[in-house]
Design a protein that fits this description.
By secondary structure, the protein is mainly α. Helices cover about 40% and strands about 0% of the residues. The protein contains three helices and no strands.
Length: about 80
């Protein structure tokens, strides 16, 4: 079997680090029975000054190579005045 070396661009390395950090944090939050907070991990990330918590653009090098759809969903908060 031929030894194959893959050279990753810096943006791909950052995207992989970002994805792994987010997945790891989501598992950690789940074990503590906390509501998922996808942005919590960004506050302590070494790349935050460059990406400014724009995880969709940061993950783009990975997302362009997947056949999976990535759809954002957010929990709708009730309006204090209308109750809706």
């Amino acid at each position: 079997m031929k030894n194959k070396t893959t050279v990753l661009a810096q943006e791909e390395k950052v995207a992989i680090d970002c994805a792994v950090r987010h997945i790891s944090e989501l598992f950690h939050q789940c074990t503590e029975h906390r509501e998922a907070d996808f942005g919590e991990v960004c506050s302590q990330c070494q790349y935050m000054p460059e990406c400014n918590c724009d995880f969709l653009n940061t993950l783009e090098p990975l997302l362009r190579h997947t056949t999976e759809d990535f759809i954002l969903a957010a929990k709708k908060e009730l309006n204090d005045k209308t109750g809706r």
